[in-house]
Write a structure and sequence with these properties.
Length: 808
Amino acid sequence: MALDSVPPICYNTSVIFFVTDNVTERSDALLPMERAASPRKHAMSIRPVLLAVLLCVSAVAHAETLTWEVAPRADDFVDSIGVCTHFSYSDTPYGKIYDTVKQRLADSGIRHVRDGYSVRTPDLWKDLGVRTSVLAEPKMGSLEKQLALWKSTPGMIGMIEGPNEPNLFWKRFGTQYKGEGWPKGVKLWQNELYAAVKADPIMAAVPVSSPTPIFDGPLEAAPLTSFDYMALHPYAGGNMPSTSCQWGGSAIRAAVQLLGHDNDLKPIVATECGYHNCIAGDAVLAGTQPGISETAGGRYFTRHFAEYWNAGFARTYVYEFVDEKDRPTDPEAHFGLLRLDASPKPAYTAISNMIALLSEGKWDAASLQWTRKPSTTAVALRVGIDGPATVHHTLLSRADGAFDLLLWNEVSSFDLRSRKDLSPLPASVTLRLGSSMGATLYRPLAGTSIQQEWKPATAIALNVPDEVVIVRLSAPLLNGIAPAAPAALKSATTATSAMLQWGCTGRIPAAYVVKRLGRTIATITPTADGSGTFTDTALTPGMGYPYSVVAVASNGIVSAPALVTARTPNQRADLIVKSVAWTPAQPKAGDEVQFSAVIANVGSEASPAITHGVAFAVDGKTVNWSDTSKDPLAPGETRALAANNGPAAKGTWTCTDGTFQVVAKVDDVNRIDESNKQNNSSKAILSTGSGSDLLVVAVHVDGAAMVGQPVKLIGTVRNAGRQSTPDGVTISCTFIATDGSGKKGGVGYGVLHRILAAGESVDVPIERPWVPTAAGTYFIVGVADDIDRIAETNEANNTSPSITVEVK
């Protein structure tokens, strides 16, 4: 499905040679953003013009190292660029100076915004051709009401996005759908949203993206598949752009976790990402995120869009377009590409100029259509880039046959410790070409004018800075017939790999290019008979991976793609906690207690060589953990682990008088991909002898028991312990009936919101009366605190003796 359906504009097909640095993952890689406010003003600094030198060398020099790269349309790259807005916020520049902000949006060339639906949504579409990816939440009205708004102006909606960071905001504001909060209510809403959009003949072609839970939210909501695109919020936390979109990083891992096991991967969009410019503070809505200077933003943002394109993101929405409030020390007030008065920051300037240089689309307000120059056939270029691994690039094609090569040095432009701009030296690069081409150099941060020109040659030497520069390579339009698509593409998989194999039915091509979910991952040289193979490794078990393979002819024309989805078998480790213990075994108040756990792998594969962490929590608060074990754990193997560290750099817990629930959770920070993440915890009760102890001393029936008639059950709950139950914790009694055949089932429960003192008893009536459906003899028991809200000195005595009830 195309990301936009009216009119269709192709989205990212990515390119070859996506190179990333080896970096340490940050725990704040996924951070939520809502309303932001005003920035400081920084003058844009212009660096010296790049030094570029023409080298006249033979066309055959280094020919063996040149690689065929497929070049998607430059206008498709432009169409992947989006920005978050808040046009319904009337007390911000979006409302106060709407006309100015709208004009800045028009001047930028950005075609996509992400926002809630507002009265500005159709206006932006009709006047500018700007589509909105609308957020869909229960708080915005019924599905019927929202659908009616979305389809009121056909074409204006580019995408419909599920709830925004619901495990943060639904919890914070008590949001529910049909009586359910996070995660059940979110899943219910998303499923109904997707079904409603796809059932509507006007909206069915508009793609729907997933909700965007953060932290452990994807695991809590899994499995969820009611969407066309996986939406992520992969903030870089002030680091280089490439650190936030790596396929081994936390953002992509979260997308896989939300889908659950045995499902196919779906295309990815980033609906929030980017940087703020507050150097004075790091506190954002969901944690900490360092800021960068406006100067560094001018270098990072163009790189940001190119890195995400290379990584296979169908669209990238940066947060956000304009600052909203005058709060100099608040990071949430400095995310804009524009300042509070709508004056441009360097990032806005660089993005706008990059779009102006690459765009081939034009908005026709009369026909409400985007038009662009006629497309050539899909093309590729034979190219080599000699330079350090930090030099990244994106290759694009133009309708007139030219190529636009984006180059940048992916190094840090800002020191997060000193909070100062860096001035890294440009990287020395030699660009080698398979045929002689003329070239021109552009620098978007400085403007749209030509910085350097070259006559046709096969090699260019230039210095590449830490910002995007564009080398436009002239080339004639290609003639000829496209090669045949790879034939009979098939796959064979293991738990962590996929081998692709295909044949050739026509002229043997010069190369094959393999893509996985929009990201180019390999260029393959055909065998003597024109066939090819490729093996992809380090995959996730129990997941479907979409691949495409194209053939590239010697004249650079590219075939139609051959497609296959390779599904890896769900063979994974599965870690559990078999038992929880502590030393001393019978602690008293003041003792230093060391917790330990025995973990086991009950899965079908060994766990990886990675930290097998176990966290220990007392009454819901993590007190310490074990992080010393890194060896694989074979299927069926067990291992004993003792706490060695904690939040206070302490491997023990100081005991106090009372009764406590101790929970041990293996792989508590989700380092290991398992077949089941719902069985990682085990709990035990630690008691010094003091505490509450609930039991149901009797169950009573109020009235006669008749088929089809309500029966009121009452359980008498007693606190046999030495301490009162905790304040604010519910006292409950669940009633379970067993019929004459031995079939057992819950028939209801009752709750009281009160403290139960030591030695006190209370009657807990069933909340909804039991209505028997058949006559006969039933044996009924009451169970106190069946879901363990309260840590008791004795958890084994919660069930009452049974009573016999004759139903007539």
